[in-house]
Amino acid sequence: MSKPTILTVDDDPMVSLAISRDLGSRYGAEYRIVRATSGAQALGVLTRLALRNQLVALIAADQRMPEMTGIEMLELARIQAPNAKHLLLTAYADTDVAIKAINDIGLDYYLLKPWDPPEERLYPVIDDLLGDWRRANPDHTSDVRVVGNRWSDRSYEVKTFLARNHVPYRWYDIERDAEGQRLSGLAHTTPADLPLVLVAEGEPLRSPSTLDLAGALGLRTKAEQPLYDLCIVGGGPAGLAAAVYGASEGLSTVIVEREAPGGQAGQSAAIENYLGFPKGLAGSDLTQRAVAQVFRFGGEMVLAHSVVGFETRGPVRAVLLDGTGEIEARAVIAATGVSYRRLSASGVDELTGRGVYYGATASEASQCQGDDVYIVGAANSAGQAAVSMARFARRVVLLVRAATLETTMSRYLIEKVMSAANIEVRYRSEVVACRGDGHLEALTLADRDSGVTEEVSSSWLFVFIGASPRTDWLGPDVVRDDKGFVITGQDLLVPAYAGRWPLTRAPFALETSVPGLFAAGDVRLDSMKRVASAVGEGAMSVYLVHRYLATI
Ligand SMILES: Cc1cc2nc3c(=O)[nH]c(=O)nc-3n(C[C@H](O)[C@H](O)[C@H](O)COP(=O)(O)OP(=O)(O)OC[C@H]3O[C@@H](n4cnc5c(N)ncnc54)[C@H](O)[C@@H]3O)c2cc1C
User: Fewer CB in 10 Å around end: N or C, the chain?
Assistant: First the structure.
């Protein structure tokens, strides 16, 4: 396969040479660096590459060029190279234009000239852009292959696990794809063997458990040490931030995550309010970067295990894993977040995983190509899902119980929802029943004012209706409110919880009623339920862990 292309566009020969030279010296081994000296020439190059089916990873264009500006050229280039990352080289005076282009043409980044030294000012930006591009355009030769039934909940779980752990895979529907039938025949599968998972090395996996799958893919499923300084339960933004700070500050640190790192944020198609990312970033990209950071500092991650219990053993804290096994640590951070509430409508439970889904990942969005999709919910998560699904679906219907979105969804998302031609918002409506033989085929919708019901055909229902904390594993000593959210810090000292805090010193800010057990992120009572606040609490909890460790 030929190398993907990085195209530079600049009418100034000196600058053109300099950017191509700097990019070539760092990326030349993996990418072909091509130079153009005008917008028109660049579009010609892109057309030729498109006709030869050659990939373009990045276009770096100067803004100030005669005849066609960089922004005008990049906008036109979407036709020939729709997936390329766009970098604009600007002078300080063009900063406003560049910021506007982030919204108008989806510009990925702008860089002020000059970019010396490139090690500090150019390469980190390009590394990020190419990293994102590679994840979105993986080399398919080493993909895992999954053969299964489109409507099987086990197939859904396997695909979700692979997608959320960033393992590229190709999906073959046993009923529709000849290649799926061929592979299934070669492996002599019976219906009970599905989904069949074929990995590059090793035997075919027949309807594997998540743990078997993780093991076959080389993902870590066991802790390495008998005792850690810090064990973090949950690998969402709070847990990942705690691991980065813990490991980087010299604590032996392990995260236990039952599904995939990233938590709820990993399911977000575009987080637009996280500081430092004016164009927004996909939750999967944020996760990927955070995981790399955890490993870089020597943190460990144990995947595919749920923590099911917690024990205090003198100065040691222990978390108990499902199946067998436990991890001991001198301090523990509970960062288990929240999970979606269940929809109460007849037929929903039987069809969950077979057309009815809680939350959504990007891979589901692309499978809805050309279909009608229904989404229940009125908060940002539902809005983001609607916008993301609308790129593939024929029509997206957002079902909202209230009469407005204003109080529950951010303004920028409401604007996106309203301006999408194929998204319809149905206010004062709810799902009262789901029907289907083996998979979802129809929904019954009710108008909450008139009571009138209507059955609509659809194979896809995505539910985003609020969340409850995952804290059952904590046991009775850890004080929680009536919904299960963990009480921390000064809130433990109110009369309602008199006698529950066992020490003479006051609890640290994020400390629970068990000294040495901290809570961070959405799982904590009165947390803000945002990525940035979860990250902040994760980082802060490590500072408090240090203070706690100094007391024992
Ligand atoms: C679709 C969607 C879009 C969103 N968009 C935005 C946005 O644009 N901006 C924003 O600021 N916020 C957004 N949010 C909210 C944001 O993602 C959350 O506030 C944030 O992820 C909370 O982080 P957390 O680490 O506290 O918990 P979570 O993200 O919930 O992570 C908890 C982790 O713990 C794991 N876990 C749970 N129980 C166990 C157990 N017993 N054993 C082992 N592991 C366990 C889970 O698998 C999960 O990975 C969005 C949420 C969703 C669902």
Answer: N
